[in-house]
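Journal club side-thread
Mid-discussion, someone asked how the predicted structure for our own chain would compare to the paper's figures. Pasting it here so we can look after the session.
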Amino acid sequence: MAYFPFFVDLSGQRGLIVGGGTVALRKAEKLLPYGPELTVVAPEPIPALTALPVTLERRRFRETDLEGASFVIAATDDREENHRISALCRGQNVPVNAVDDREACSFLFPALVRRGDLSVGISTGGSSPTAAVWLKEQIEGLLPEHTEEILTWLEGQRPILKARLLHQRERAACFARLFAACLTLGRPLTEQERERELGEDTYG
């Protein structure tokens, strides 16, 4: 079954990871750049996990840990415990990911490509993680080296174009020209290059 790729603002959201091994570590490392407040519950977390900016509870999972959680990752090495956590989450309508157990998940982790504000998530619905990783590598190979800088620069052009009183359709056409020029050069444009791409028709 295909999964719809919602893109969710995780800034300040409370996430719970149950488990303290390498899988929990990978999940935390994927999530942290998006700004959630993560709590990790595990009796014996690995050192690399303790070094991350998370709240660490060195103990076993309790049902009360779900209070206030926006999402949960069940990443213990005990499949039955992961199933129990999943059932509790589903009963409370808390999104849950149980590692290596698609049937116990209400959401999946995608193969992820991230360049600044650009996020590309790839999922095969759990049918082939290998295929998802292959697609991720293909997409990474297509992106310009300075993708993050280009996107930041384009965002900065929005107020400039809006100030020129363009209609939305005209602004979209101008952004398309600027983006194409950035791709050709592999970097943001200089002011002179921008004006050359836009032309005098963008004034007034």
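Post-session note: The first strand starts at residue 14 and ends at 18.
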